[in-house]
Amino acid sequence: MTDKPEKTHKTIEQAEQEGKYIRKVRSFVKREGRLTKGQERALNEHWQTMGLNHEDGLIDPQVVFGNDKPVVLEIGFGMGKSLVEMAKAAPELNFIGIEVHKPGVGACISYAVEQGVDNLKVYEHDAIEILADCIPSASLSTVQLFFPDPWHKKKHHKRRIVSAEFVETIRQKLKVGGVFHMATDWENYAECMLEDMRNSQGYKNLSETNDFVPRPESRPLTKFENRGHRLGHGVWDLQFSKVD
Ligand SMILES: C[S@@+](CC[C@H](N)C(=O)[O-])C[C@H]1O[C@@H](n2cnc3c(N)ncnc32)[C@H](O)[C@@H]1O
């Protein structure tokens, strides 16, 4: 009888400890999606002026935009329609959008060009890495996170982008007085967001009732929100300002 071969299979944790690889839990699953002709053209013709690249590292917003207007950062803008509408309505601000879904980035650029919007730049990359590598500390006047993927099942909650660590990262990137604005149509996620924000030092809740705020006029209805309304979901907005 031969000896049983030694079991060589390692757990993920063992491999991580040995520095073999770092396991990443991402807040998105990359969807394959074909680009429409219009999205492809927009990316080819306007990336040079509207696109920002992760590999270029830390940005200086004043250099990027050629002025020192306050900067609004939106994470996960989807197809970008509401972001373009906000940028068009607020020429006194600069906007940076981050989205991983390439057709969405193409659609956003295409719509921005059509609308003559020139105060918007976009990244096609994971927002977590952009925040870590490209956005300077205390540089943002607003961070927007509208209808992030809710990851409904409990076993998937670790994929949710909002966590204690994430809200602290956002706080570091905001100027004092800057606002972190989130919205979701998933009640359990809204409650978790509120808990993370309440537990975080250095934020003040802008809600008069110390929980949620009514949707501000400045936030147009997003594509996802419209879908939520059709499904009969409620919507919860949270706004917190950085106090120190
Ligand atoms: C549910 S959709 C909402 C889109 C849009 N905000 C709206 O309200 O219509 C969430 C979006 O976030 C993007 N996303 C998720 N995690 C991301 C990340 N780490 N970095 C950049 N985009 C992300 C997804 O690709 C998706 O387009």
Give keywords.
244 residues; alpha/beta; eight-stranded mixed beta sheet; 19% strand; tRNA_(Gua-N-7)_MeTrfase_Trmb; Rossmann fold; disordered N terminus; 8 strands; globular; binds S-adenosylmethionine; tRNA (guanine-N(7)-)-methyltransferase
Task: Outline the structure in words.
This protein is α/β, with parallel strands linked by helices. The protein has one domain (37-242): Vaccinia Virus protein VP39 (Rossmann fold, 3-Layer(aba) Sandwich), CATH 3.40.50.150. The chain contains nine helices and eight strands. It has helices at residues 12-17, 37-50, 61-65, 81-89, 102-114, 127-133, 164-173, 187-199, 223-230; strands spanning 51-52, 71-75, 94-99, 120-124, 140-146, 174-184, 203-205, 236-242. Strands 1-4-3-2-5-6-8-7 form an eight-stranded mixed beta sheet, sandwiched between helices. Strand 2, helix 4 and strand 3 (94-99) form a beta-alpha-beta unit. The longest helix is centred in the N-terminal third of the chain and has 14 residues, at 37-50. The chain is globular. S-adenosylmethionine is lined by residues 27-28, 75-78, 98-101, 104, 126-128, 146-149, 161, 222-225.
Order of helices and strands: HHEHEHEHEHEHEHEHE
Biggest beta sheet attributes: 8 strands, mixed
- Average pLDDT score: 91
* Percentage of residues in strands: 15-25%
CATH superfamily: Vaccinia Virus protein VP39
**Large-scale geometry:** globular
Q: How much helix, percentage-wise, in residues?
A: 25-40%
CATH architecture annotation: 3-Layer(aba) Sandwich
End-to-end CA span: 70 Å
Number of helices: 9
Number of strands: 8
The top level CATH class name: Alpha Beta
- Identify low-pLDDT runs: 1-13
The structure class reads: alpha/beta
Our Rg estimate from Cα atoms comes to: 20 Å
Our count of domains comes out at: 1
